Amino acid sequence: MRAESQCTAGSTGLPSPSGQRVTIVVDGSHPLLQLKRALDWEAIATVMVKHWRAAGKNVDGGRGVGWPVSLYVPLLGLRAVKALNSRQMEEYLAENGVARVCMELPEQERAAVRDHSNIARAQAALGSAGWQEVNELIVTEAVRWGCGRPAVRSADTTVQEPQIGYPHAAGILRGIAPRVSRSLVKLQKRGGLEGAAALAKAKEVLRSVKHYHLFAKTKPEKDQGLRQIVAQTQELIGASPPGLDRVAQTPRPAVRAAVQKIRALAEVTRQLVPQIRQWLETGVGARGKLLHAGITTARAIVKNKVGKKVEFGLKWLLQRLEGGYVFGTVVAAHADEKQRPVAALQHYRAVFGPQATPEMMVYDRGGSCATTLKMLR
314: part of which helix (H) or strand (E)? Predict the structure, then answer.
């Protein structure tokens, strides 16, 4: 895809040669600009580039369209501050003068800002581990400037629910087919592999899922349709083109990333298919069942809240400092709550130093365990 086609179209209200130019003065003391000056963007960029490189993005100037590091680093930082989704972020950059000054894009007639789908892909490539590292850098910088006080902190576990549909088995399997297709197209164009058979299988899966949702009304029809989708998905994974091991050694990041994606989806299929078959045979969901083809760490977590017994997502151990700054880490879906206060202290020291100890610790579950209290003392 050419770089020009990845940018937001001019019809969304962005400046264009046929439009009218206006002048807006942005005060340098605006809180957003003060925050930008305070943060260590070099360290933040180093963390983001590390995770983007691991995800196969072209951050090192290889062949093809380069990954715009200087654009995406402040863009994702701004998105985190504003807590916007990718579509809202696209619109915010198009209409907000302070945002464009923050992004150093005030004078451009055509905004060099990717559209919402590319913004979402940049965030997905960073991953939860990348976001965690970036957030810890921001928290430590806030403490250095005196905005956060690490002497007092509270900790608790919570579940973050990603923006995913209800984890129905057919929907999860449907997520595998387009991901495999996109990787196969990359391998055809850049790796020279023939993947026509696998692409045809992917289309079969998508057709079967559509038929399942539209026409399967009774339980026998749904079960039969789901078994067909399971079989077709296995055939899709088995039809991956030969030569993956050979092209996996290529220096081209896009090809290596495509091979890694196909192998990761094959592993997801190997875990997911037995779980679906267990449900078809017994009517009981498998423990630790996968919920999403792309977010493989998400799990169903029983919370027994009023009106919401189960939450689907990632379990976090979050810590809040006096001053409102929050940092945290992902923990196992069914992690022992009695161990969370000690784990919170260990993560606190990983951020602020091996000898750092808060004056006051506030925690929810696990605080009454005698062994935990002894270890904390």
Answer: strand 308-322
Q: Tell me the C-alpha distance between 341 and 259, whole Å.
A: 40
> Which residue segments constitute the domains of the chain, with CATH numbers given?
3-147 (no CATH), 169-282 (1.20.120), 314-376 (no CATH)
Residue 195, both tokens: 């993947």
| Residue that is written with structure tokens 């990603």 in the block | 162
Convert 252-277 to b/e letters by CB count within 10 Å (16 or more is b). bbbbbbbbbbbeebbebbeebbebbe
Using alpha carbons, list the distances in angstroms from residue 217 to 21, 210, 368: 57, 13, 51
pLDDT in tens, 267-294: 999 999 999 999 999 999 898 899 999 8
Taking CA 37 as the corner, what is the angle to CA 33 and CA 42, rounded to the nearest 5 degrees? 130
Give the Cβ contact number of residue 155 at 10 Å. 24
Whether the pTM exceeds 0.90: the reply is no
Q: How far apart are CA 158 and CA 112, in angstroms?
A: 37
Residue type, 194: E
On whether the CB atoms of residues 170 and 229 are closer than 8 A, the answer is yes
- Tell me what the pLDDT averaged over the chain comes to: 87
Query: What does the pLDDT look like over 336-347, one tens digit per residue?
Result: 888 899 999 999
Instruction: Count the Cβ atoms, other than its own, within 10 Å of residue 297.
Output: 16
Instruction: Name the β-bridge partners of 363.
Output: 155
CA dihedral (27, 32, 38, 44) positive or negative: negative
Task: Burial-class residue 343 by CB neighbours within 10 Å (0-12, 13-18, 19+).
Answer: middle
Structure tokens at 152: 């007092």
Contact partners, residue 26, CB within 8 Å, separation at least 6: 33, 97, 98, 101, 106
